[in-house]
Structure formats: structure tokens, C-alpha cells
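Posting for a labmate who doesn't have an account.
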Amino acid sequence: MVQNQMNDGSLKDLWIGIGISIGIYALTFFLLLGLMGIFSIFFGIIAIIVLIVISFLKGKKRLGQGLLIGFAIVFLLTAACFGILIVTLSH
């Protein structure tokens, strides 16, 4: 069991993956928002998906899991903000 954990990666990689995904989202949101408008959010999501695929292909399971958790946080945050925006504009 100890050898299996060493191959999967450490919990540090998990937290690094979460930080990378939230950092990518924040960078694309704040840097590209002025240039491209609301569509800049989708570039961040696409970048995170590409990193998830790359990390699993290279065998970094914990990093990929952290990126997936961060992607879920980003996706839910984007959906919630979009819902608030739609409800606010409809009144």
C-alpha cells in the first residue's frame, strides 16, 4: 500500500492542482475580461481541461485529481454567478 501511494503522488500535488486551476481561472478572468468580455471565462475552463488530460496522461494522478477538484469549484462558481446575473437582469 505504501508503494502504491508513492506512485500516485502526495497530497501536496493535490493542493497544487487545486491552486493551479483556481489560479488559471483568476488570471483568465481578470486579464482577458477587458479584452474579450465574458467569453474569457471559457478560455480558462478549456485550459484547465487540457491540463487535466495532460496530467493524467503523464501519470500524475494526484495532480489530475486536484485539477478536477479545482475545475469543479470553478465550474460551480461560474454557474452560480451566471445564474445571479440572469436573475438580476430579468427584473
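Reply:
Got it, the C-alpha cells are right above this. The chain has a mean pLDDT of 84.
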